[in-house]
Amino acid sequence: MQYNPEDILPTISTDCVIFGLDQGKLKVLLTRRAIAPKKGGWALLGGFVLKHEDLETAARRTLKEISGMSDVYMEQVHSFGQVGRFPNRRVITVAYYALINYTLENLKPGPDSSDVRWFEINEVPELVFDHRYILDTTLAYLQSRVRTEPIGFELLPAKFTLTQLQGLYEAVLGTNFDTRNFRKKLLKMNLLIPLEESQTGVAHRAARLYSFNNDIYQKLKAKGFSFEL
Amino acid sequence: MQYNPEDILPTISTDCVIFGLDQGKLKVLLTRRAIAPKKGGWALLGGFVLKHEDLETAARRTLKEISGMSDVYMEQVHSFGQVGRFPNRRVITVAYYALINYTLENLKPGPDSSDVRWFEINEVPELVFDHRYILDTTLAYLQSRVRTEPIGFELLPAKFTLTQLQGLYEAVLGTNFDTRNFRKKLLKMNLLIPLEESQTGVAHRAARLYSFNNDIYQKLKAKGFSFEL
Description:
Distance between the termini of chain A: 44 Å
Order of helices and strands of chain A: EEEEHEEEHHHEEH
CATH class of the largest domain in chain A: Alpha Beta
Helix content of chain A: 25-40%
CATH topology of the largest domain in chain A: Nucleoside Triphosphate Pyrophosphohydrolase
Number of strands of chain A: 9
CATH architecture of the largest domain in chain A: Alpha-Beta Complex
Number of domains of chain A: 2
Shape of chain A: elongated
Oligomer: homodimer
Strand content of chain A: 25-35%
Number of helices of chain A: 5
């Protein structure tokens, strides 16, 4: 969708760091700029804020235009306002992150982009402006959040195996955990409800499925916890 | 100091929530507006960002103009950009908090203020714009931070007693702790170095003084901890 220049706040943008989990790999969604400055460069998903909309509304609009998704976990991380971070004029950008289910469906470049694509977190190409710094800051924030709040579980399906859950933590934190230790620590939180169901359609022995105890989840979200792995 | 309107970014401000500890009470520094809009109203310390300065530089300038202080702990919390939060024009404000030693010296109203004063956190007057919301959001952030990182210790002198430290936590969290339990949990972290010194000039039995183990402090700051009280 194209916007009227008069409806735009020229000094304020939002940028979204969109994380998804693809078979145990953490990925980030990037877009290729079709306009100057830095035409052709890879960038975080972002854009201006409209005069009539709140910051988070702008971030959600951007995400929806590109992914078609609207009901996702999204959180403001930090504002970046260094002099010179954007060429020619002063723009501060408010960074949000979102955790979405990895999908290749419905992705379409935003209004000023020529491409949109998932990249593994370790294979991110050169980014425009200060977007590498924004990505690094946001990833560090997410890594600290998953250790102190039960965030990140949004990346899992409603019913999941302990292997999937461990894979999520390993992907986000970029490390491997001892399986026995991981499960022991996790089960101690009473956060998981073991279901009377197992995986279906797998070649190996079907693992038990779990879901989250939403009461405990909400309490831990409010109170915080320390998940030392 | 007065600024040239041409040097100012009219759409971006910073607001500082300045916390101090006065005899076991958490206080916040507020200023009285001497200009429209909301002339005469109490406000957080804040103001515009200059075209040539970064966001945090602007926040530190404001703090310095009013308190004379420059070397303080300061952290960005959140940006507030709701439509209509500021009258007549769109301004987004980036909120920072600072922890400073409570002092009545060197306080002077900023360029557009008629007064500056410490208020106990429970006795804050009506605030202008969305400043009450900014204050509440920032206090909640601080409360969550002192449980997961060794932040807040900046409010103590270099050598302090365990009673002072407990008083800090009680003031920030607005609650009372069981002294024995508090000390046990705290000492387990190895964060404190017991000194071969005691308080001087007190009527009661002089308590032992402690200082922080800076190595452990830096590690906990990077790694985080959970301080369940």
